[in-house]
Amino acid sequence: MSIQIFGIQVSRGVAIGRAVLVASSRVDVAHYYISAEAVPREIERLRAARDAVARELQTLKAEMPPEAPHELAALLDVHLMLLHDETVIAATKHWVQERHYNAEWALSAQLEILARQFDEMEDAYLRERKADVEQVVERMLRQLAGTVPPPAGAGDGAAVAPPAGPMPGASLVVPPAVAVPAPAGPRDFAGEDPLVLVAADVAPADMLQFKRSVFTGFVTDVGGRTSHTAIVARSMDIPAVVGAREASRLIRQDDWVVIDGDMGVLVVNPPPIVLEEYRFRQRQSELERARLSRLRHTPAVTLDGAAVELLANIELPGDAGAALEAGAVGVGLFRTEFLFMNRGGALPDEDEQFEAYRSVVQAMQGLPVTIRTVDVGADKPLERSGDSRHDHGLNPALGLRAIRWSMAEPGMFRQQLRAMLRAAADGPVRILVPMVAHLNEIQAIREAVARARQQLDDAHRAHGAVQVGAMVEVPAAALMIDRLLGHFDFVSIGTNDLIQYTLAIDRADEAVSHLYDPWHPAILALLRQVIAAAASRGKPVSVCGEMAGDAAFTELLLSFGLRSFSMHPSCIAEIKQRVLRADTRQLQALQAAVLSADVPAEAARALLSGAR
Ligand code: PEP
Ligand code: MG
User: What are phi and psi of 22, to 5 degrees?
Assistant: First the structure.
């Protein structure tokens, strides 16, 4: 049966694929395709894991002290029985044989199906048996983790291993060489179908690991348009919908799903005629992208000659290539916190950070690179640190986040600043500090930079000149913009948080996402005020929140005097097209109409569609 599910659109375009359901707790399971020849070996891995777990359970049972409750032994028997149950093992083999999933993926795919069947059971006792199946599967997954096949080429080349690297549990990623399913010879096996990921929730750090994944689209039950999970999904430039509430319950493993990233709609098991329509739209949007990409190297200058700087937001050093490729004239926001995640609690040291920052500076070939000091906390917790100080507070968005976290970790902060100053020896670097709101922070930041530089001098280490800027993303900072400008070399407006904190709307909470309104008059007034203040002092100002990459705001922001926009590389071409068609001399009427309107979005739409 075909159903429609409504969510929040995150990134444009249409994706059509089979659903892969992933439970949040099992995100660390490696998902990759194996070649046809590797099937027997993968099944052997499954069998060996099952036998090892059976031995483990039998040993546990044999060593059970006599005083242990007899229910425990009975439970182990249930687990042993499940291990040999056809619905677990035989069905798992089916995923390996028919779809060429690796053993871990096959096992977790089957677990999702079983878990759903248990959830639907009337009998409470039987429903609770779901936990037993989960435990048995978790044991098998642990066993499998110890028997990861060698990388392709190292052995018989039959299997393709998840990539090695510092991240534990190479989650859901595949080496670029197998970013598309491996060919299966003459038989048209179902593994060639594109796949879309469906999950209740995916943490931003886990989302990041999908960058090189097999998935062509994403759906999550929770999240708002500017949650960091959505931001990372958008940076991958594939269709995604968040806040789709019941999606992970309504969609079943292997269902066909259309993700309409333009409208925020999912169509599950669409009838052929609907599918055909979406395939048509998919082709149209690919053509449009190809057309826009021709603007890549055209300078962004308005019709009346105003030069506009279009910069890139990046999450990892490897994104610099995409930034250049998209025609960015620099990096306007490098979210360094992603270097701190997925590391089992170990933080990157100064040298590792230096290498990461330098690689971006070098890749950008003399173009400016704005590196933001770490912005952990809120929806980007360092949750694997095991450090209770950094656990979620009652209100994490208002808690120990961004510069507050850095201030609480002065050693770590200086280490990061030293790494940035060292990278500045190789090219232009701007240091950007998130969430500045207090005057004492300004003083402390300047002192920390001076101290870091002094430490480098003492150690005879090369370092370069930097500009130091503040993010304007807390209303307090916007309201005291003149003071801020007196102390910083530049400012960058983080509209994602500015909206969150001004309107008191959690940006990651889909329940209030309808109130998260970039068109709110208070937001527009703050933006105009900050941009005007910077212009009158001759200080550079940029917008690096999602509004910068949203074409609906380009003309309005230009009318406020903004000449620097930083966004996902995939947005640059569209924004450039708007800039090329704009005439700043004619935008004052737009500004006046929008600022005085009760519904500013409508006023902007009416005027802009009339102008086109
Ligand atoms: C912002 O808040 O607008 C911003 C760019 O920073 P982040 O989205 O990483 O919080
Ligand atoms: Mg922010």
Answer: -125, 125
Counting residues of the chain whose pLDDT is more than 70, the rounded percentage is 89
Q: How, if at all, do strands 195-199 and 14-22 pair?
A: parallel
Residue of minimum CA distance from atom 4 in ligand 1: 494
Distance 378 CA to ligand 2 centre (A): 10
According to CATH, where is 1.10.274.10 located in the chain? 29-150
Digit-coded pLDDT (tens) for 9-62? 988 899 999 998 887 555 567 778 888 899 999 999 999 999 999 998 888 888
591 lines ligand 1 (CB under 6 A): no
> Is residue 333 within a helix (H) or strand (E), and if so which, with residue range?
strand 331-335
Ligand 1 pocket residue status of 224, Cβ below 6 Å: no
Query: What does the angle CA 365 – CA 370 – CA 376 come to, to the nearest 5 degrees?
Result: 135
Is 375 close to ligand 1, i.e. is its CB under 6 Å away?
Answer: yes
**Span 1-26+165-293: which CATH code?**
3.50.30.10
CB proximity list for 569: less than 8 A, separation 6 or greater: 235, 237, 312, 313, 314, 319, 322, 323, 325, 326, 328
The domain defined by 294-611 folds into TIM Barrel (3.20.20)
| pLDDT over 50 at 174, yes or no | no
The residues with which 220 forms a beta bridge, in sequence order, are 199
pLDDT tens-digit profile of 459-510? 999 999 999 999 999 999 999 999 999 999 999 999 999 999 999 999 988 8
Mutate to test the pocket of ligand 1, among 314, 338, 544 (most ligand atoms within 8 A of CB): 544
Q: pTM for the full model? A: 0.79
**Looking at the chain, which residues constitute the CATH 3.20.20.60 domain(s)?**
294-611
| Pairing of β 466-472 and β 195-199 | unpaired
CB 279 within 8 A of CB 267: no
Distance 477 CA to ligand 1 centre (A): 14
* Cβ atoms 150, 60 nearer than 8 A: no
Could you list the active site residues?
A: 228, 544
Q: CATH for 29-150?
A: 1.10.274.10
User: What length is written for the chain?
Assistant: 612
Domain with CATH 3.50.30.10 in the chain: 1-26+165-293
- For residue 378, CA distances in Å to 167, 245, 475 come to 22, 21, 17
Give the closest residue to 377 by CA, choosing from 205, 232, 224, 543.
205
pLDDT tens for each residue of 340-369? 987 777 889 999 999 999 999 999 999 999
